[in-house]
Amino acid sequence: MSLHLIGHVDLPAHLGRGGFDHAAVHAATGHVYVAHTANDAIDVLDARQYLFSIPNLPGVAGALVSDDAQLVFTSNRAENTVGIFAPGPRPEVSKVKVGIGPNGLAYDHGNRLLLAANVGDPQIAGSHTVTMVDVARRRVRASVAVPGRTRWTVFAASLGLFYVNIMDPAVIAVLDPRRPEALAFLYTVPAAGPHGLDFDPDTGRLFCACDAGRLVTLDAATGRILHDAPLSGVPDVIFFDRALRQLYVAVGDPGDVEVFDTDTMKSLGRTPTEKGAHTTALSTDGKLFYAFLPVTHRAAVYRVIPRDLPGATAKE
């Protein structure tokens, strides 16, 4: 295995329900921004210690860092807004109203467009949407209906397209930021509940982890299914490590991270985390991996060991 546990970082105790959600890393500082949903806040840490929190983000679910724009984006599900602010303590947070229950986030720096994938309300017809936010003007550019509850989303810069997982029907919605008012394509996924999503720019592949316990690989340009592999359980967030050609899949029950070799799409094994741990982050240099532990409200920090090093093992 390629994950070696080097320590833990204690984080603020949960004040309410919800635990942690998505996380992202700021390259210039190495600081990790994690959505602490239970506290309506973003917690910020490094590999050694908790640093500070950014409060007043009701129901925060998503955290996304753009190193190109030097901005942090949050999806604040309980107030139907996205937050936009600069990295660092005590930022001035701009908020933009979006659709119902924003969750997944993706950003196109070239067009200065932030996509917020809104989970919607099953009692409100037409509430499953994605919102395109003009970041420069801090206003909504477009709202597009999608066929079901959204999950995670990614922007593929090399193709200039957004991809959004839809839980049911099991599809990936494709949107072109040059024509943000409508869907471009829908790709059918042959497994129930598309959830975690990431993109390999070198091969043009999408990795889609599904609730059915399957890892589906698709051609991002056409939607053609390239591979389908079993997972150890129901997945959540996934991260692609471009340098090591590995994919990290968080599984909350029983609580582990399953690692795949993306050249062969074979599992390299699992590293235990904690029951319910479905939030992870990968440093931009690929050397550190973080798993957020909801029971003990802390982050487990792992060093990523390249597979070709003699004797490389993970402490499990």
Overview of the molecule:
- The chain has 316 residues and is mainly β.
- The protein has one domain (3-304): YVTN repeat-like/Quinoprotein amine dehydrogenase (Methylamine Dehydrogenase, Chain H), CATH 2.130.10.10.
- The chain contains no helices and 28 strands.
- It has strands spanning 3-10, 23-25, 32-36, 41-45, 50-54, 60-66, 71-76, 81-85, 94-97, 102-108, 113-118, 129-134, 139-145, 150-156, 161-166, 171-175, 183-188, 194-200, 205-210, 214-219, 225-230, 235-241, 246-251, 256-261, 266-272, 279-282, 288-293, 298-304.
- The chain has a four-stranded antiparallel β-sheet with strand order 1-28-27-26, with no helix packed on it. It has a four-stranded antiparallel β-sheet with strand order 2-3-4-5, with no helix packed on it.
- The radius of gyration is 18 Å and the shape is globular.
